[in-house]
């Protein structure tokens, strides 16, 4: 009886593994189709990644290695999703000092 339980448990795990690898492949194919449809090249994604990193870094100290950009499809449009770990917000006073220093130099 216990043997049947473990056998069923093992079969269930194997089905999940197959489903998860199939799901991953399906998701990769969907992204490839979306990028192709939107005419998004690797160079464009790399530039977008750098630009977003630069803008977010003005306001937050982030884990640069964790920044991930995805394009998620819906029925009639696609959404740009940006995920990253925020370590802390940058203080506004340092921004004001930089602006004042920049203005004084001009």
Key features of this structure:
106 residues, alpha+beta, two-stranded antiparallel sheet, 2 domains
Question: In terms of topology, how is this protein built?
Answer:
Elements: H1 2-37, H2 42-59, E1 60-62, E2 68-73, E3 78-83, E4 86-89, H3 92-105
Antiparallel strand pairs: 1-4, 2-3
Give a description of the structure.
- This protein is of the alpha+beta class.
- It has two domains: 1-37; 42-106, no CATH class.
- Helix content is 64%, strand content 18%.
- The protein is built from three helices and four strands, in the order ααββββα.
- The protein has a two-stranded antiparallel sheet with strand order 1-4. A two-stranded antiparallel sheet has the order 2-3.
- A hairpin with a 4-residue loop joins strand 2 (68-73) and strand 3.
- The radius of gyration is 23 Å and the shape is elongated.
- The N and C termini lie far apart (83 Å).
- The model has no long low-confidence stretch (mean pLDDT 75).
Share of helix among residues?
Answer: 55-70%
Tally of helical runs: 3
Structural class: alpha+beta
E-strand count? 4
Average pLDDT: 75
Give the CA-based shape. elongated
Uncertain runs are: none
**Tally of discrete structural domains:** 2
Cα-atom radius of gyration: 23 Å
Estimate what percentage of residues fall within beta strands.
15-25%
Strand order of the largest sheet: 1-4
Could you give the order of the helices and strands? HHEEEEH
Straight-line N-to-C gap: 83 Å
Main sheet properties: 2 strands, antiparallel
């Amino acid at each position: 009886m216990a043997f049947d339980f473990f056998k069923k448990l093992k079969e269930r795990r194997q089905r999940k593994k197959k489903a998860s690898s199939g799901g991953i492949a399906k998701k990769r194919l969907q992204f490839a189709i979306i990028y192709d449809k939107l005419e998004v090249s690797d160079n464009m994604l790399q530039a977008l990644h750098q630009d977003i990193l630069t803008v977010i870094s003005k306001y937050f100290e982030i884990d640069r290695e964790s920044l991930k950009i995805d394009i998620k499809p819906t029925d009639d449009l696609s959404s740009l999703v940006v995920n990253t770990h925020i370590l802390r917000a940058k203080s506004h006073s340092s921004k004001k000092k930089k602006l004042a220093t920049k203005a004084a130099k001009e």
